[in-house]
Amino acid sequence: MLVATAVQNVPANAVVVQRIKNDGQILWGAAGAGFATGNNNCDYRMRVVQGDSASMIMLWGDLEHRLQRVDTSGNFRWGPQGVVVGAAADCYALRRLCSDGAGGAYTLTLPQNTNQPEAFLQRVLANGTLAWPVPGVALGETGFSIGDMDLSADGSGGAFVITRLNSSFELRVRVQHVNAQGEVTNTVLLYSGGIQAGVNCALGTAVNGVVPAVWYLHPPGNRLGKFQRIATNGSMQWPASIDIYDSGGSPQSMNDLKILSHADGAQTFSWFDTRYASPTSKVYAHHVTADQSAGIADLVPAERFAHPVPTSDQLLIDLPGEAGSEWQLRTAAGAVVASGRLGSGAGSIDLGHVTNGCYVLNVRTSIGQRTQRVVVAR
Fold first, then answer.
1. Which CATH class is domain 306-376?
2. CA 124, CA 333: separation in Å to the nearest integer?
3. Residue 316: in which H helix or E strand, if any?
4. For residue 154, is pLDDT > 90?
5. Structural fold of domain 141-298
6. Which helix (H) or strand (E) holds 265?
7. Taking a C-beta distance cutoff of 8 angstroms, is the pair 238, 247 a contact?
8. Number of helical H runs and strand E runs in the chain
9. Where are the chain's structural domains?
């Protein structure tokens, strides 16, 4: 796999990329492959996605939003300094990134941190050229600033964008569709109401021109979750968005939304979020099906033996002193998708071939059976 980071003063500010095997072996030496950014600022919000089967694309900021594509041989495909997609006034400028499915990527950037009047959508093609004139497609609304945002490719050269819009008297959550020509074709208002303490929003992978969206409202002393599916023509699957969570007056802070969308016959969509309620933090998984049934599961039980959750490939099992571990990974419907055996109560399970989703892990040892919910997310 490829990993990237931004480093300050080594001896110059730089973006460093490293290739690591599944067993943890470093392939490109201790220094990795990298290049100096040439600026004093270093990024704290780097984004990385897969470019194609042999490359990754990374987005970072060093007084400018820059994009670079690096292959598995350590070659930087888009020039020595990458492609500039917009201005970034500081290290904390908000940015989002997703693959376009054709070796390029879409970027969604703000010139500074949150609460800016406009965000800019840009597409960089596989050859490193920009699809739309700099700074890209402006997505804003008069009298409002942007507090949170996310994006998803539509599969036809365009993209969906969800934004949280703030003003002194109103909060809005909306989804816009931008076509391959850089034109805003539809705007769907998902929520409009009084000021909230804050809102998080996220989009999943679009399937057949329809994208799943989830957002959380933070009224005083409570937390509410909503879910909807929006098509490129602006239509919504359900007349009213589905209520998927009500904290019942608990003031938990909800962050790190990620949708795991499934194009299966049941049209099931899952996602997870992290909630902070002093003194503990929890990770929860949700699902919504086509008939609007919803569910929620605590992914961090009191006795947690498998980690990390979520995982992209390796899942570590930690049951010391329990010999002969046999394990099965099942879907919510009970179907076995993977199984195996560990020589002891500790080891690792390779889930790199398992599709994104929420699963139940059953481990049987010399002492008894253990169960934990896990999430596979890439």
1. mainly beta
2. 40
3. strand 314-318
4. yes
5. Neuraminidase (2.120.10)
6. none
7. no
8. 0, 30
9. 141-298, 306-376
